[in-house]
## 1
Amino acid sequence: MSTETRDNAFPDHAHGAVSEQRRAHHPQERNDGGAAAFARPSRDGSDRSISLSPEARLAMADQTPLKGGELNAAITSALVGIHTEHLGRGPRSASTFYHGHVLVTLMHDVLTPAEKSLTRNNQSDAVDHIRYLFQKTMEADFREAVERLTGRKVLAFISGNHIDPDIAAEVFILDAPL
């Protein structure tokens, strides 16, 4: 896992990456791309439970909205879970931050082995198109997760990928600041 730099333009609560040191002291907080901070039916309609962090369970029980790093971690986990469900693998690392009405999730190393093979064979345009189709397919799930976790309506969703370096950005414009 790479070390991510932090943009000092955002306050400390705006950074959602869970550090290795914090995970060592709080093993219940995961950023391994496998768990999402939500439960919903699987594509085949069967019920599926996904474990929630203690903070997320407490917030749901009290109906207290998540804030700061807890919100960032829950959104990161939810979007990584959706990404993994649709594509069969999650990103190597991901983080979420927000400022005012804007919420951003960055995911690193998201391309599948097939997409990486296409890019090595000068088919980056095909990969861009495939990624666009994937993003359109995941958009409703992404919007629902962000709206549920933030308590805000998503006015606009902007999604993009960069091939080299392999980074995806999911940008949400909300109806009110967080």
## 2
Amino acid sequence: MMISYLTVAIIILMLIATNLATIICMRGRTDKLLESEKQKYDKEKKEFLHSTLRPMQEKEEQKFRMAEANLKLLEHQEELKRQKLEMAEANLQLLELKEQVEQEKERSDRLLLNILPERVANDLKEKGSSIPECFDNVTVFFSDIVNFTKLTSTIDPADVICELSDVFTGFDRIFKHNHCERIKTIGDAYLSVSGMPEPDEKHACNVLKAAFECMAFLEKRNQNHKMKWQMRMGVHSGRVVGGIVGIEKYIYDVFGDTINTAARMEHYSEPMRINVSSETYALAREHFKFTERGSVEVKGKGMTTMYFLEGIINK
């Protein structure tokens, strides 16, 4: 009976051991299964995150990069606008500077034309110099105010300058309109020519017509001004040399016996009369009315035939 109980006990112990082994084996399998399932879950989770969240992350990153790119583009556009604005301001300054330079050039040109004939002024600007020239067919006008020194001795010098400026400005307009060139004024003397520096076959008629209009201008002015100026005028035609005198200050001057003779014509004229030489008379007698004065003894010239200009025949 003891053996029987022992056998049963052994059998029971073997069964318990077998069950324990089975349980242990099953537990090991369960742990492995759980580990496998966990790994599978982690893998699936990782794949899910990779397949689902990664595109979203990449999309967000792409949006961020695009935002950065747009910001840089805007900054670049702003920089371009700033540069364009600076260029526009620089161009405006250049235009203003160019306009100032052109205005100064025009002013300089006008000042140059005030003291030089246009062709001579152009030669001076283009070549830097102007060669003296001889002109064979020129008519010269010369005038001065009768008793000027005596009259101005009791007048304020500033008033004298204003009077001369007004009279000579009127003369300038008249002579320019008649294709003449004012050369210079010396005190109350006024010198103008036609036929130089640009040749003009009507040089005698141009000067006589201008002289006649200047006399009419002066007569009309005397009616409306306190100062009553009277002038002697002289005209002569012939050969003249013209050129620039000086370097520091440019002066265009004329030389020759024709200039001296025109001055003599003025000297031997009478107040408010235009005295004309026989040379000028021969060139213009068909277009103007003259009164012959006969021969007059002229210093350095001998007996010289002169004429007073009386009017215009053919306008």
## 3
Amino acid sequence: MPRLARAGALVMSAAGAVALIGARAVGPASHAVLPVIVEYHIPTPGAFPHDPAVDPMGRVWYTDQANSRIGRLDPETGAFTDQPTPSPKAGPHGIIAAPDGTIWYTGNSNGTIGHLDPETGTIREYRLPATMPDPHTPLLVGQYLWFTVQRGNVIGRLDTSTGEVKTIRVPTPRAHPYGLVLAPDSTMWVALFGTNKLAHLVPPDGALTEVDLPNAAARPRRLVVDDSGKVWYSDYGRGYLGSYEPRTRRFQEWRTPTEHGAPYGIAVGPDGRIWFDEVASGSIVAFDRTTHAMEAVKIPTAGSIVRNVAVDKARGRIWLAESGVERLGRIDVPGTR
């Protein structure tokens, strides 16, 4: 059963105030109201939050990869609960909240997919074929759970009604499929982190086409698709934010505020801007798609790496999993509620 942990404390400054860090503008004029980051300390010793997800009730779920636990924060009370995965060394990585309120995650260390029912606390594990040793990023579309497999160099599809698993092989060797997102046209895009390519996946069978990025040194890690169908990706290797317009096949890119900034987790925020983590500076950067202005928001706790983010559009929030510092972060995006 889930374990009730003490309420996670908001990170406090020496004066006792909540640690709120404001933003700095980079480039053209930015938004007048500056966002801040509020942190919640996870009480489980050695917690390593990898990915976050928000359920329909606004609760924040996260994978604690180091402790092989699935955790939950209730933002209204600040209380944390968590529970172990059935396999003690599953190393949970990606996580999503389904429309029905249940939780799916990838067991990155033992080749499993997990399905958690919050009402009962039970977790069902699906054992994957040996060719899928490290499931990574999950995506639920109807009855199918799609997921990337880095070392296996494949995309997987789990039929949640039958347990059947389908394999879609990536043509380029050692492409390391990483980020995975759904587009408005119900197709999917994949970041091939081991090379300078994206992949376009068409369900239900998973027909796959690779798209070369213009620079051979590009290494796309995470990606997101906006409401127009444009693909945005974090070029971790070169320190750029990139975009690709599938209809015109046009690429654009912008250097991140810090040289070799190592952009990582990325999302379309409630305000329509592109938000991404800049590992090198310990900041979250907001990019205006119209003016191309960037606004950097410093993460309060040094050493944080945000590998993935989750957007709560209904409440105007962005949630961060701060790996390495045992924290979750919350941004209340100005003007979105």
